[in-house]
Design brief:
It comes from Rhodobaculum claviforme. The chain has a domain at 25-92: Roll (Surface presentation of antigens (SPOA)), CATH 2.30.330.10. β2 and β3 (67-76) form a beta hairpin. The protein has one helix and four strands. The protein has 99 residues and is mainly beta. It starts with 27 loop residues before the first strand and ends in a 7-residue tail after the last strand.
Length: 99
């Protein structure tokens, strides 16, 4: 008869205890897109207005590289950071497949 010892279950790793947890990443916030022709682009001058495909109240998209990770709404910080832009997350993309 073999003596089998049951191995206790290993604790599940969380994102904060991986070796990559403290590696900084760049998140790009996309507020909209413009699609001018090359001729229109060449005519742009200082103070020109480039109309985007979104309205001020529309959600913004957050990307890591070319991968959409979340959506949110732009907001302006108060207090010590008054005037600085920020994003309040309103929707997270399921990243279970990894980045």
């Amino acid at each position: 008869m073999d003596d089998l010892t049951e191995t206790p279950p290993q604790p599940r790793r969380t994102a904060s205890d991986t070796p990559f947890a403290h590696v900084p990443i760049e998140i790009i916030v996309s507020v909209g897109r413009a699609r001018p022709t090359v001729a229109e682009l060449l005519r742009l001058d200082r103070d020109a207005v480039l109309t985007l495909d979104r309205r001020v109240e529309d959600p913004v998209d957050l990307y890591v590289g070319d991968r959409l990770i979340a959506r949110g709404e732009l907001m302006e910080m108060d207090g010590e950071n008054a005037g600085q832009l920020a994003v309040r997350l309103t929707e997270l993309v399921d990243l279970s497949g990894g980045l």
